[in-house]
Amino acid sequence: MPAPCTIGIDVGGTKILGLALDPLAPQRPLAEREVASAHGGANLIAQVETMVRGLWSDVAPRSVGAVGIGLPGLVTLRGVLRVGPNLPGIVDVDLLAVLAPTLGVPMAVDNDGNCAAWAEARCGAARGNDDALFVGLGTGISCGLVVDGRVVRGAHGFAGEPGHMTIVPGGTACACGRLGCWEAYASGTGLANLARRAAVEGRLDGVLRRIGGRLAALRGEHVTAAAVEGDGEAAAVIAEFARWVAIGLSNLANVLDPSAIVLGGTMMDLGAILLEPIRAAFAREALELGLRSHTQVVGAQLGRRAGAVGAGLLALPPSV
Amino acid sequence: MPAPCTIGIDVGGTKILGLALDPLAPQRPLAEREVASAHGGANLIAQVETMVRGLWSDVAPRSVGAVGIGLPGLVTLRGVLRVGPNLPGIVDVDLLAVLAPTLGVPMAVDNDGNCAAWAEARCGAARGNDDALFVGLGTGISCGLVVDGRVVRGAHGFAGEPGHMTIVPGGTACACGRLGCWEAYASGTGLANLARRAAVEGRLDGVLRRIGGRLAALRGEHVTAAAVEGDGEAAAVIAEFARWVAIGLSNLANVLDPSAIVLGGTMMDLGAILLEPIRAAFAREALELGLRSHTQVVGAQLGRRAGAVGAGLLALPPSV
Fold this sequence. Notes:
The structure is a homodimer of 320-residue chains. Chain A has 320 residues and is of the alpha/beta class.
């Protein structure tokens, strides 16, 4: 009789990914489902419930012992999603209150960055590290902190939002309405900002030619694609981007002194073309790195599944 | 028969403060000693040992159950001081290895910011808070983090050094050799930097007149003293300073989501003239403060004794 499995759901702005996991081998899902995200809180709850029941039937006759859900936004300690920048119109959604009674198993609801951090710390790139950060570089920056082997949630549940550290007072406008946030420089949005400035200043002519000179169409992907193909100007913009990423990582290292900094998110699908310049820049930016012999910057191992794996693992009782 | 007391020693760049404490009432020391700091690692160890033995005899016939020592610098998880910016010539000092055998009681050696944070969280301004930050504004910025009721040390013991977060890339030179650290803007040194710039730009004429127009002599204390006396230009520089402090506090709140941010250090002896502008600036800088109903910025309660009190408490077994 195999142990009960755990179900992990990762809610994103565009899609919802669900996994059924064996707690003893969570990196190899037993079942996987994905749907496009609907709008509105009620639809979100219905979609999650449908996906959980679907995964439950996928693994039958095996039982399900826990369900975890990761949400992209500020999630309280009681699992209520207060706001999510990529979930327009969804405010104060309490998945736990609706789903826990009907599902009848232990549930956890947490921020998606916390989930990804927990997954990478338990069975990914930071396995064996009690002090680890996950930093996800996508449209924005998601993050989760593990300190002394536990996820840090803070007093309200909102810990781990370094994307909105001010690193340039009065700097580039951020989606949050403030100026000079790390996310405005060191995310996909940040790379697009840097690329536009470089193009205007004539430092990205090759890339601009490829897209017909339409500055407004310039995106981060154009720069990374050109860098992969050996465009020197694009590589220079990537190096500039890497420095901005490293400034924030160095700030986090000064505050938390982790042994593993795991870089994930959709941008890191590019691999070494981003990871290596970020590592090099971190080695220049970090304070007293010579004394921090255990601190490593590594690429995530669980990829797009990290959030769902971590959500499933966070729902398990601590002893498992 | 009263419980054994604990001894806490706070080593600073200019003086060493020692307290004998009743663990049940640590805010009222049983004995107190202070000496000027000598130079050199061997002298430091001898001074600390002399002070411990002195305090021990001060409280006789009561017994001593533990000794804790706070050091101003990077202290490893095993209690070795690697480097301390205000302890010139003192590198890789292992107080524990020398003193633990001769004293024969449990000992703790930790960073002084960690000690102060622990003291304020246990019996000071953050009492009752499981998630608290201590930020000490003096010549530099010292700090300690309490998360989930425990001091955060990180993978090497170097957590809690936000003074060296980069908040202005390429900005003002910091004592650490890097550019644009928070400490270069939001410490006593930072206030002096801001004051000199204001004076050069003709925004601090009254203060400059008082010190005979000698720009090189201008210090932060001149600005705070003038602000206390109602000088509007000085108050404007204090407001500017408060914004820099708040930027760093906001960054820390985004990362750690504390319920209490305790401001201490020698600068905070000034009280409301600094605390109120910092609170006002934090309310403007912080992200989603409306959702962080528990987050308060408060003045430290233990003053110059915080480090020694916390060192003594950290040396106690966890159950006390």
